Amino acid sequence: MQLLVVGSSLGAQVTAVALASTGHQVCLVVDEIAHYQALEQGRSLWREPGLDSLLQEVQHQGLLALSSLEAWPSLRSQSYAAVFLALAPNQWSLAESITLRLGQMLPDFLLVNQSTFPVGSTEALQALLPDAQHQATVCLPDLLQEGAALAGWTRPERILLGCKTAWAEERLREILRPFNRRQDHFMVMSPREAEFTKLAITGMLATRLSFMNDMANLADALQVDIEAVRQGVGSDPRIGDQYLYPGCGFGGLSFSRDVMSLATTLEDSGVGSELLEEVLVINERQKEILFRKAWQHFETRLQGKTFAIWGAAFKPGSDRIDNAPVLRLLQALWAQGASVQVHDPKALDALAAWAGKRDDLRLCATAAEAADGADALMLLTEWKTYWSPDFEQLRRQLRTPVIFDGRNIYDPQYLQSIGFTYYGVGRQAGEKTRTTEVWR
């Protein structure tokens, strides 16, 4: 089918590339000329596993065409089976103008709203179309996880679809058939329900994360190991073990923005949500947890200290630092006169652009370089390359063998046994709890 995808978001690019990889003829229209030039050269706008190579492949096969919004060709000679709209939340006016233009030019088409706009936006876009019988708007919420976006699109666990029109559902099912073969992943509901479900999912996940962070902080005070608690809580089938890992806070452009969008929606509706407001407060406070632990360990004397930081991206697999814990941590350390040496496999360019040139910031090519001569190590992003370092070498490199583990990936007992001072988030370095005893 002939398909049009509009937007420069992660969802837009993944949608365009994934659809083109199954044989659809796709035109991707990006809203900034710089983005168009990058894509034309085969460079993805997002550092996602597998995305660059698949982008180049579908371009080489002639299945993916590109256009900037300014150079958008006339649509009168085109017959698009569907138009996917994947814009940023602040681009509502652009969504309206594009929808009006499409409605005037295409007498028969399907508009698929993937953008995270306020609840009711899909219905609002439908109202802009002159022919409700032959021009339909549906909601296909973007449920992608940055760092696993392509895999999530091509092998979905579920496909939320907000749709009230039978022919629109039938057409979209056919478009997505290659990704829906093993079983029917579609969950069909009204557009408003689909929009709200997407926000509610994000709110629930954020609530679980913040709750476990709160429990981890309490575990510190009670001298309880949060890892044993996490496993016990996750073993309850009513709860499960997903999104129960405490740490130094969540970030990410889409995730954080969706939580804030849900909070705004609740506030604007007059309902309000003290729970969600507290979730956001806990998360922002949690981003400074390692700073507070360092403040206590060094007895408030951080001036002149140098800290190694492993990980700047908000999650492994991404080069983005949007709302990442590293930003709050750096600001807190710099305010106390400390210096930092940072390593990240992908996000150093983004960090350099955010921070600018500073004497108290050194970007390092390797994790070992970042640790060399530092007074302590802080781990913020659980990249696999950080899981099993040479601890003996690390201990020699650090001025003092102190590790602040913001993701609880290390074994406190082991590190303590080889001479490190270890601080996790709710972790205790006491004797391991025996879990194999049978009660008699």
TrEMBL record:
What pathway annotation does it carry?
A: Nucleotide-sugar biosynthesis; UDP-alpha-D-glucuronate biosynthesis; UDP-alpha-D-glucuronate from UDP-alpha-D-glucose: step 1/1
As recorded in UniProt, its EC number(s) are 1.1.1.22
Q: Which Pfam families match?
A: UDPG_MGDP_dh, UDPG_MGDP_dh_C, UDPG_MGDP_dh_N
Q: Which residues form the UDP-glucose/GDP-mannose dehydrogenase C-terminal domain?
A: 308-412
Query: What are the UniProt keywords, alphabetically?
Result: NAD, Oxidoreductase
NCBIfam families listed in its UniProt record: NDP-sugDHase
PANTHER family the record matches:
UDP-GLUCOSE 6-DEHYDROGENASE TUAD (PTHR43750)
User: What is the protein's given name?
Assistant: UDP-glucose 6-dehydrogenase
Question: Taxonomic classification, please?
Answer: Bacteria, Pseudomonadati, Pseudomonadota, Gammaproteobacteria, Oceanospirillales
